[in-house]
């Protein structure tokens, strides 16, 4: 399926979404990326690949993920109806398994000997380690030391699944540094290795490819809301770091003007501080990790240190398609602070018995803030991109619950 908005290809043949995206990489890496793109284009339309992926989605991941009406939360807020897209119920606990299965199958098809990846909160790492175990390919995960300490449950899972975990201590020892480290390892042998990027970021074809695998989220939402109340939802809301779960939820609705799309970035300690990751809100067009996109950077053009309570969102860049959608005004990009995120985490846990990931809690925070202002006939779908098991110990310590 080819994607367009306002006559703009998403992406064009060179991998650009408007002026964003592309391949800003060395010539030897460009050939490797072009090989991946050619292999992806070759297999993605084949019946065999689609049937295998469809079978795994249904019988391994557990798709379709449910659409749950949060009745108690809706009644408590007294405004719009809130529905939760339960990606947290997928095998491995998040949306990441959707594209990791696709990437692992592609690696197997291409005869790669090692899959390399970065991870922030650990959900991409766990999902990729899972997919690699399933298809029988060695897996190496690069993770910032700060995130390793915050996300201990996911670290243990990756090791159990057989992944080799590389602790990254340079820079801020978080997601951006893990990406740098993983890229360096990949460059040692791009012919035999594949870098399985964990979001809709990086050089073409990854922003397109990861988006395509994640688009099933929005496709399911469209079918489920039609069956539930005979129409599209009024709002679809998702958190945005790199932006894979958000594009997964938004893609099916991009050309439906009746649906408002909202991406929620991390405001951290506040937009007036240097402790946030609000790339689309406060960044500017630049380049990072082989792509053109919005970037938070200093006067010297270097990426700024960023912060979010959610390890999966602390990235100074963002997906190139999100950058275009911001410029077009098709998606409203807004923010939630660390405190709003924590409040949302606890509220959803105690009102609906659903413990969301801190990443997803940013989207929940928007619903808590905005739903009371909207009419009771308005329907909001919040993408619960992951579950909060990985964050429970950290939140408990922060709030003095242990």
List its salient traits.
aromatic amino acid biosynthesis, Trp_synth_beta, Rossmann fold, pyridoxal phosphate, 16 helices, six-stranded mixed β-sheet, alpha/beta, 2 domains, 402 residues, EC 4.2.1.20, lyase, 16 strands
Mean pLDDT: 96
What's the CATH first level of the largest domain? Alpha Beta
- Using DSSP, what is the number of strands? 16
Quote the distance from N terminus to C terminus. Answer: 49 Å
Return the CATH topology of the largest domain: Rossmann fold
Tell me the count of domains: 2
Query: Looking across the biggest beta sheet, what order are the strands in?
Result: 5-6-16-11-12-15
Which word captures the global form? globular
Major sheet details:
6 strands, mixed
* Low-pLDDT regions: none
Strand content: 15-25%
Total DSSP helices: 16
State Rg: 19 Å
Helical fraction equals: 40-55%
Structural class: alpha/beta
């Amino acid at each position: 399926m080819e994607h367009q908005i306002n006559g703009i290809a998403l992406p064009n043949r060179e991998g650009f979404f408007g002026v964003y995206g592309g391949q800003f990489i060395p010539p030897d890496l460009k050939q490797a990326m072009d090989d991946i793109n050619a292999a992806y284009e070759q297999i993605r339309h084949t019946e065999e690949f689609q049937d295998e992926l469809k079978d795994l989605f249904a019988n391994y991941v557990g798709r379709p993920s449910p659409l749950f009406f949060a009745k108690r939360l809706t009644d408590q807020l007294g405004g719009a109806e809130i529905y939760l897209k339960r990606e947290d119920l997928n095998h491995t606990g998040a949306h990441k398994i959707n594209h990791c299965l696709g990437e692992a199958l592609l690696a197997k098809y291409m005869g790669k000997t090692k899959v390399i990846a970065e991870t922030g909160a650990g959900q991409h790492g766990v999902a990729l380690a899972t997919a690699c175990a399933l298809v029988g390919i060695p897996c190496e995960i690069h993770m910032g030391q700060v995130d390793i300490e915050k996300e201990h449950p996911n670290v243990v899972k990756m090791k159990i699944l057989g992944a080799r975990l590389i602790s990254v201590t340079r820079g801020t020892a978080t997601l951006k540094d893990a990406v740098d480290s993983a890229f360096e390892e990949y460059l040692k042998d791009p012919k035999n290795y594949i870098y399985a990027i964990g979001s809709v970021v990086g050089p073409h074809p990854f922003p397109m490819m990861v988006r395509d695998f994640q688009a099933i989220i929005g496709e399911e939402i469209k079918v489920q809301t039609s069956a539930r109340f005979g129409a599209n939802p009024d709002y679809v809301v998702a958190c945005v770091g790199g932006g894979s779960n958000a594009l997964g939820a938004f893609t099916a609705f991009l050309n439906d003007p009746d649906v408002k799309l909202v991406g929620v970035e991390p405001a951290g300690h506040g937009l007036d501080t240097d402790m946030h990751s609000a790339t689309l809100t406060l960044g500017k067009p630049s380049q990072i990790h082989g792509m053109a996109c919005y970037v938070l950077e200093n006067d010297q053009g270097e990426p700024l240190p960023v912060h979010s309570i959610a390890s999966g969102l602390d990235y100074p860049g963002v997906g190139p398609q999100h950058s275009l959608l911001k410029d077009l005004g098709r998606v409203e990009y807004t923010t939630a602070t660390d405190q709003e995120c924590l409040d949302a985490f606890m509220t959803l846990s105690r009102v609906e018995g659903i413990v969301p990931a801190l990443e997803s809690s940013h989207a929940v925070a928007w619903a808590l803030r905005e739903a009371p202002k909207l009419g009771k006939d308005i329907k909001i779908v919040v993408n619960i991109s992951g579950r909060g098991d990985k964050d429970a110990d950290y939140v408990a310590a922060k709030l003095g619950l242990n």
